[in-house]
Fold this protein.
Amino acid sequence: LDKIPTWREENGSNDKEEGKVLKSGRGINDKVSLYKGDITVLEVDAIVNAANPSLLGGGGVDGCIHKAAGSCLYDECHSLNGCDTGKAKITCGYDLPARYVIHTVGPVARGHVGPTEKNDLTSCYQNSLRLLTENNLSTVAFPCISTGIYGFPNDPAAEIALNTVKSWIEENPDKITRVIFCVFLETDFGIYKKKMSVIFQDN
Ligand code: ADP
């Protein structure tokens, strides 16, 4: 986690001139990061899983997380009776470096972005952050929920992810210390980088 720069550091504004904002540790730029790669290697309090309603594993990031966490994760998920779209449930992280996994179920969009899909995706981020803080956890990594097999278009999905997390941090400033947006694809990396420089611009 220490090696992943915050958004402020990544953009070269981590100098003494701007130390006032930095020292307080409250600036939103000090709390968000963009990371490209496998979410299962991240040492955070919780990684978020883009699960399906059964919570029993599947393809994509879900499959990677179950593989890396080991069969105890499957056993705990099995006891949870599934999860509705937009909701979230928490389990231990088992063999993962992350202590917990927050499983959330994104909307099946198949390319269509209507009010329901938008609301459900927003709820995924909100309910995951709520579970995080309810469990007194403060660092988290999100994958690009719903943008794989579930077919939510990447650009509006990123817009929702970034704006929802930003609002949440602003409304709960003392609780969350680090949110890592973990992208896997080059196209998402480009989309997030561009949007983050606008949404999390220095203030
Ligand atoms: P969904 O079913 O919600 O669409 P997917 O797992 O199919 O979920 O895709 C969500 C995102 O996770 C996609 O951008 C996909 O490329 C990405 N992804 C796949 N494997 C990993 C991984 N190991 N770490 C992080 N992201 C991953």
Q: What stands out?
A: Residues 38-40, 50, 60-62, 64, 106, 143-150, 182, 184-185, 188 surround adenosine-5'-diphosphate (CB under 6 Å). The two ends are 24 Å apart (CA to CA).
